[in-house]
Structures are given as structure tokens and as C-alpha cells.
Amino acid sequence: MAGPLPVGDPAPEDGHLPASALASTSPLSAYIHVPYCRVRCGYCDFNTYTASELGDARRDDYASQVAREIEFAARVLGPSVRPFDTVFLGGGTPTLLPAADLVTMLDALRTRFGIADGAEVTVEANPDSVDAEYLHALKAGGFTRVSFGVQSAVPHVLATLDRTHDPERVPEVVASAKEAGLDTSIDLIYGTPGESLDDWRQSLDFALALDTGHISAYALIVEEGTALERRIRRGEIEPTDDDLMADMYELAESKLSEAGFRWYEVSNWARSPREQSRHNVAYWVNNDWWGFGPGAHSHVGGVRWWNVKHPHAYAQRVNSGVSPAAGRETPDAQARDLEEVLLRMRLASGLPINAVDAVRRADAQALVGEGLIDDIAYEAGNLVLTFRGRLLADYVVRRLTD
Ligand SMILES: C[S@@+](CC[C@H](N)C(=O)[O-])C[C@H]1O[C@@H](n2cnc3c(N)ncnc32)[C@H](O)[C@@H]1O
Ligand code: SF4
């Protein structure tokens, strides 16, 4: 299972929030976690469960459990309830549930909170768990966007990742999503053991031919405790070296920008500002969001909390009317500043220089000299990574925060 939850402070059973948090007027987002997968991919450490791992937790009752947490959230927020600007159903594999269940959860958000006009409402989908009828049902129910987990177009790479979908089906389901009137996005992973630069080029060409408005390309993280990590430890497969990883990122940037995409976060590209993921941007600029479901994290007005991880424990809590939160914390100003640097430095919109103190400004100036922070943006008062800076984003952030 995924790594442990943070420790934090105990969370009150009635979920009450301090008046200062309730006074927040930040835009509000909703994340709904759907913790089910047909099989577990060897690289994944998300909080998700296959049928045999679920015990007596019931999948067919999941939409009504989440609806109970939505009711609970509306009671906790009281007069601070406001319509959601963005909604994201992620997983796990939300599309393992019937489309009607996903629509039921969205309806509950709409009834108790409201969904803002023009809101972005995304669902993650595995290409092999949806068809045209399913996608039309999502559109009719109010979803606006689908994010497909494609990862690669190359069979041996998909096999190493334990992906079960047939890449040949992907163009058909993406076309069906567009036909249904949904915006579309693709997730790719690069740096899988055994993947060559040519394999990666093939996946990028495949993704571009799908003609979606948004593409995420993530460097494979070998997570502790995953099957992938064990295979590497046993010497069955070799991790990809950093130079090849950098070449792969460079190839992604050049092919995507040639095709008219612009980066707006280190791992995310969109064809136009409208097609950026507003939901992810809401996390990165630290707006308020309520995360529903097992293991989901929330942030409202400076208070953060996280739900119990197992679907069975979650069901018990929400069914008996108590908060499913396992712990909470209120980060102090120093922790908040650190996080702001960490998140904003990954964005093309950057970090305002006046958000950092004099010592960090001197570090930033040195990083401009090293070609890692853009000199023109710097003159205009903003810290933005150069292309080389994006390759070394973690190093830049460390330099600005140590
Ligand atoms: C948790 S998955 C949920 C979506 C859906 N279940 C799927 O796999 O298509 C969201 C995305 O995270 C990315 N991801 C998951 N584990 C990763 C890892 N270890 N390294 C890099 N990216 C990862 C994948 O691109 C995946 O599409
Ligand atoms: S389908 Fe997605 S969430 Fe499920 S195990 Fe694979 S990567 Fe993780």
C-alpha cells in the first residue's frame, strides 16, 4: 500500500474548523478519490486497492459513502459553503465504477455546494475502462474533461509498467471523448527501465497524433515498497540513468513546443491557457480544496487534514457520521513560505521576487548567473526557471530553501 500518512495533530470527530479558516474566501476545489484498480501497476504507490485487497469494503456503496462526506463537509463549512471552481475525480481508477456512480457524486457536490458556471470537472480514466456510451454519460452528467493514463505507446515499456491497456484502443477512446464534447488530456511516463530515446519519441508522436489540448509527462519515480523497486533491487531491471532522463525531457519539450504546446508547470504542457489544468493550478497556488474519500488530503484557510487510508475504515467513519480525518495540521508561516517556493518555482508563471527574503534574493541572483533562472523575468521581478533550470528544478528549489 502507499506510504504512511503524516502524523500531525488529532482531528476532531465533528470536523470543526477555526473561525480563521472558515473566513477564507479563496476559490474552492473538490477532489474525490476513487481507491480501486483492477490490477496494481508495479510502479504505483497511490492509495488504491484491487478486489482481493478490499476485504469487506463495498465498491457498490462507494458513491453514497462519498455523498455522506459531502453532506458532512457542507455542515462543517456552514455559511462558508461556496460553489466549486474545479472538481477532479482521481484514483485509483474512477472509471471502474459505473458512470452513474460518478454522476451521483458530482450531483451531491452540486446539491450541497454548487458547481460554478464554467467550472472544470475532470475525471481520470484508463483507456481500457471506458467506451463511447460511458463517455457520453459523463458529459451528460456535467463532466467537462477526461485525463487518460496512456503512459507509453510502446508494448515492452507498457509491459514493464504492468499496464494492461492495448495502445491501439487509445485513439478510439480519445476520439469518443472529443465527440462527446469533453476536453482531453494524456498522461505519459518517461524513464521506464529499458525505454530508449527512440521508444520515448514514439510515445510522444503517438500522444501528439491524438490531438489533445493537454499533455502531462512525468519522470518515472521508483517508489519505495513497489514491485518495480523490488525488481530493480534484485537486479532484474536497470534504472534509467539521469543523462537519458534529461535527454527525454529535452525531447518532450522540443516536440511539444514544435506542436504548439507551452509548458506551464515542469511536467505539464497545454495548447492554450484555457486548456491548462485549472484544478492542478489551484493546488500549486494553495487555494482551498476539500479532498473526499480514503486517504484524500484537504486544505481550507491554512488548515490541512488527511483522511484514513483504508476504504473499510473510511466507510465506517462516514456511515457513523464522524469525520473520516486521521490527522490535521496548521503549518506555520515558515513552512508555508517554504511550500510556496517549492510549488511556485515549478510554474511558468514563477515566484514573485518580493515573496522571498534578502538571502534568498542573493541566491536567486546567483542562479540567474548560472543560467538556471530566467534573466528577463528576473529583471521584471519574477523568478522563472530557464529550460536548463527545469531540468534541475529540485536543485534550484534546494538552493532557494536551504
Ligand atoms: C495515480 S494515476 C491515476 C490514473 C489512472 N489510474 C491511470 O493509471 O491511468 C495518475 C498518474 O500518475 C502518474 N504516476 C503514477 N505513479 C507514478 C510514478 N511512480 N512515477 C511517475 N508518474 C506516476 C501516471 O502518469 C498516472 O497516469
Ligand atoms: S491504474 Fe493508475 S492508480 Fe491504479 S495502480 Fe495503475 S497507475 Fe496506480
UniProtKB/TrEMBL annotation:
<dbReference type="InterPro" id="IPR004559">
    <property type="entry name" value="HemW-like"/>
</dbReference>
<dbReference type="InterPro" id="IPR013785">
    <property type="entry name" value="Aldolase_TIM"/>
</dbReference>
<keyword id="KW-0349">Heme</keyword>
<keyword id="KW-0408">Iron</keyword>
<dbReference type="GO" id="GO:0006779">
    <property type="term" value="P:porphyrin-containing compound biosynthetic process"/>
</dbReference>
<dbReference type="Pfam" id="PF04055">
    <property type="entry name" value="Radical_SAM"/>
</dbReference>
<dbReference type="InterPro" id="IPR006638">
    <property type="entry name" value="Elp3/MiaA/NifB-like_rSAM"/>
</dbReference>
<dbReference type="GO" id="GO:0004109">
    <property type="term" value="F:coproporphyrinogen oxidase activity"/>
</dbReference>
<comment type="similarity">
    <text>Belongs to the anaerobic coproporphyrinogen-III oxidase family. HemW subfamily.</text>
</comment>
<feature type="domain" description="Radical SAM core">
    <location>
        <begin position="22"/>
        <end position="262"/>
    </location>
</feature>
<dbReference type="GO" id="GO:0005737">
    <property type="term" value="C:cytoplasm"/>
</dbReference>
<keyword id="KW-0143">Chaperone</keyword>
<dbReference type="InterPro" id="IPR007197">
    <property type="entry name" value="rSAM"/>
</dbReference>
<keyword id="KW-0949">S-adenosyl-L-methionine</keyword>
<dbReference type="InterPro" id="IPR058240">
    <property type="entry name" value="rSAM_sf"/>
</dbReference>
<dbReference type="GO" id="GO:0046872">
    <property type="term" value="F:metal ion binding"/>
</dbReference>
<dbReference type="GO" id="GO:0051539">
    <property type="term" value="F:4 iron, 4 sulfur cluster binding"/>
</dbReference>
<keyword id="KW-0411">Iron-sulfur</keyword>
<keyword id="KW-0479">Metal-binding</keyword>
<dbReference type="InterPro" id="IPR034505">
    <property type="entry name" value="Coproporphyrinogen-III_oxidase"/>
</dbReference>
<protein>
    <submittedName>
        <fullName>Unannotated protein</fullName>
    </submittedName>
</protein>
